[in-house]
Amino acid sequence: MMNRNVAPEARGITFTGSTLDRADQLRVHPERLSVAWADTRARVVRLDGLDPLPDDEGMLATGPIEPGARLADHALLGLQEDGVPLFIALHVEKKPHEPPVFPPKVWQIVPHLRPDQAALYAGARSLVDWHDRHQFCACCGSPTHPVKAGWSRQCGTCGAEHFPRTDPVVIMLAEYEDKVLIARGARFPPGRFSALAGFVEPGETIEEAVRRELWEETGIRTGRVDYLFSQPWPFPSQLMIACTAQALDCALTLDLEEVAEAMWVSREEVRAALAEAPDARFQPPTPVAVAHHMLRHWLGE
Amino acid sequence: MMNRNVAPEARGITFTGSTLDRADQLRVHPERLSVAWADTRARVVRLDGLDPLPDDEGMLATGPIEPGARLADHALLGLQEDGVPLFIALHVEKKPHEPPVFPPKVWQIVPHLRPDQAALYAGARSLVDWHDRHQFCACCGSPTHPVKAGWSRQCGTCGAEHFPRTDPVVIMLAEYEDKVLIARGARFPPGRFSALAGFVEPGETIEEAVRRELWEETGIRTGRVDYLFSQPWPFPSQLMIACTAQALDCALTLDLEEVAEAMWVSREEVRAALAEAPDARFQPPTPVAVAHHMLRHWLGE
After folding, report:
1. Apex CA A118: angle with CA A106 and CA A54, to 5°?
2. What is the mean pLDDT of chain B?
3. Cα angle A83, A238, A174; round to 5
4. Are residues B227 and B277 in the same domain?
5. How far is CA B178 from CA A68, A235, B60, B226, B298, in A?
6. Distances (CA, A) of B260 to A19, A156, B15, B214, B263
7. Are residues A37 and A77 in the same domain?
8. Interface contacts (A, B; CB < 8 Å)
9. How far apart are CA B232 and CA A32, in angstroms?
10. Which H or E element spans position A1?
């Protein structure tokens, strides 16, 4: 039996629609894991640093398990639909000056990946990068080592177990009188606007985080919040939670350290921007980003 | 201007409905933070280890800033509606054998807290516990110190900045022919059932995580997934994301290491359980847990 994971709600949102069975039961059964590792069909996903290496058909590069390679240095990503086990090496050769977030080169490669391969890449990149940045125990400072087929790390000294992070981020369009609020982040190029976003903090709900972020960054109060859809974002490992929020007023008071500009835009203005019309009022977010799909969804597309 | 954070969607779900303004702009402005610390009205929330200390009116115990106390040893939780700054000490005196999760004593105290105080407790507990378990840098193993008013830690050696964790967890009711699927976890007492749940992993959406967990733990396939509401869960720091999922079949194949029993229950059976009827088929989850509200929501309550 395979894990049929293709989601009705996946509307072509990048990094969604994985067809891999994560086969979590293998992670905690060393003998079953060894069988997967010994499978002559098993493949190892290859990355270029943390970047994807796609072939002409949009598939991620893979290779056989090299002679002498050790299971302990790899994570089991899961089983393909044909049952072939997929692994990835946990050691990453980071390139000099590799930007930790928003690597522009990756944004150019990702649209050429087959959707299920982009989803596979997202999980693999987040996992490998997490291992790279979590070699030591946050509790006691001692070295940790991968356990559970690369899905956690354990401290050799105090025994604490550490799991990969997934940081929930709310990203939202406030609505007011048939307009939505978009913003240009302090580090965005001129003209480029997107949805506002921020990390969910300990002790708050998704809806409370949406209201807090809109309040902090633009000074507007919001009532009802509706969840739209979500997206894994592997730079380094966010869960983007897309929402709309009903604004109770429209006067903006910007936090200029976070937001350079913000404006309410009409459906016509959003349509022109997405169509890249020469007289469009703003440049929309890249189709790789969930904000792009939020704007399309708002237009009813 | 105050942060009006009381949420229309907060249907009495424990740990939601905070009225605190987190005042994030103070965290990064040392001089504004010092003004808050010097405010003679400022209060420090007191905990008993990691447990709440409520008074007879359901308020968390607070005290003044003690002479000699250092701002660097405290986190700014935020500003009350009357503008009073609330801090908490970052050093926690953990009690011997303090259970890291599911502390039964806390579950007994929390229902006696005023809802906004329970929400305040949730954020404070998660934050303090995170500091306690993250004294060292995961990148290089060196000691870290609190920065940004206790909302992050920085490594004195490599400079890496670490933020408090919030781990997204999906919790779901699968529906099939007007019944929902509930389960008894392998460590639950006999008779006690709840909704299935699991951590969202890197590289998957909320909906994909719901389908994967149901598949892994009960062997059922699901189609449409709908988000219901969310809850912060401070044992130690989860974001519970409640969903329903439409099951495509009802035959169960349990992962017995995770799930001792699972069953499809009718509205009548859920109603009897929530009413604690003597002949009820199962004991429902505690009202503190979001699963309780998911069952009530399913009944249309």
Report:
1. 65
2. 93
3. 125
4. yes
5. 54, 41, 42, 16, 10
6. 28, 32, 28, 14, 11
7. yes
8. 209
9. 36
10. none
Q: Name chain B contacts of A129, Cβ cutoff 8 Å.
A: none
Interface test with A, best of B238, B239, B293 (most A CBs within 10 A): B239
Q: CB-CB: which of B10, B120, B168 is closest to A166?
A: B168
Q: Which residues of B touch A8 (CB under 8 A)?
A: 223-224
> Is the bond preceding A115 in cis, omega lying within 30 degrees of 0?
no
Q: Which residue range forms the structural domain that includes residue B233? A: 167-298
The beta strands (E) that lie in A67-137 are given as 74-79, 85-89
In this predicted structure, what is the pLDDT of residue A104? 74
Residues with Cβ within 8 Å of B145's Cβ and at least 6 positions away in sequence, in order, are: B72, B153, B154, B156
Residues B272 and B243 reside in one and the same domain: yes
A107: buried, middle or exposed (CB in 10 Å: 19+, 13-18, 0-12)? middle
Bridge-based pairing of strands A85-89 and A43-45 is parallel
Phi first, then psi, for residue A281 (nearest 5°) are: -75, -20
**Could you tell me if B205 lies within 8 Å of chain A, comparing CB atoms?**
yes
Residues A157 and A172 in one domain: no
Write out the two tokens for B12: 């009495």
CATH number (domain holding residue B241): 3.90.79.10
Q: Which of B13, B167, B257 is facing A166, going by the closest CB pair?
A: B167
Of B46, B55, B134, B51, which Cα lies nearest the Cα of B95? B51
- Based on the domain organization, do A152 and A180 belong to the same domain? no
Q: Report phi then psi at B283, rounded to 5.
A: -90, 130
Q: Return the residue in A239, A254, A257, A293 with the most chain B beta carbons within 10 A, the one to mutate for interface testing.
A: A239
What pLDDT does B92 receive?
86
d(CA B240, CA B171): 7
Do B270 and B181 belong together in one domain? Answer: yes
Residue A156 shares a structural domain with residue A178: no
End-to-end CA separation in angstroms for chain B: 35
Q: Say yes or no: B103 and B150 in one domain.
A: no
Q: What is the residue type of A218?
A: T
Give ipTM to 2 decimals.
0.95
- Going residue by residue through chain A, which has 301 residues, state the pLDDT in tens, using 9 for 90 and above: 344 444 555 578 999 999 999 999 999 999 999 999 999 999 999 999 999 999 999 999 999 999 999 999 999 999 999 999 999 999 988 766 555 566 778 888 999 999 999 999 999 999 999 999 999 999 999 999 999 999 999 999 999 999 999 999 999 999 999 999 999 999 889 999 999 999 999 999 999 999 999 999 999 999 999 999 999 999 999 999 999 999 999 999 999 999 999 999 999 999 999 999 999 999 999 999 999 999 999 999 8
User: Please, which residues 67-86 of chain A have a Cβ atom closer than 8 Å to chain B?
Assistant: none
The number of domains in chain A is 3
d(Cα B185, Cα B102) in Å, to the nearest integer?
Answer: 13
Among candidates B124, B202, B216 on the partner chain, residue whose Cβ is nearest the Cβ of A24: B216
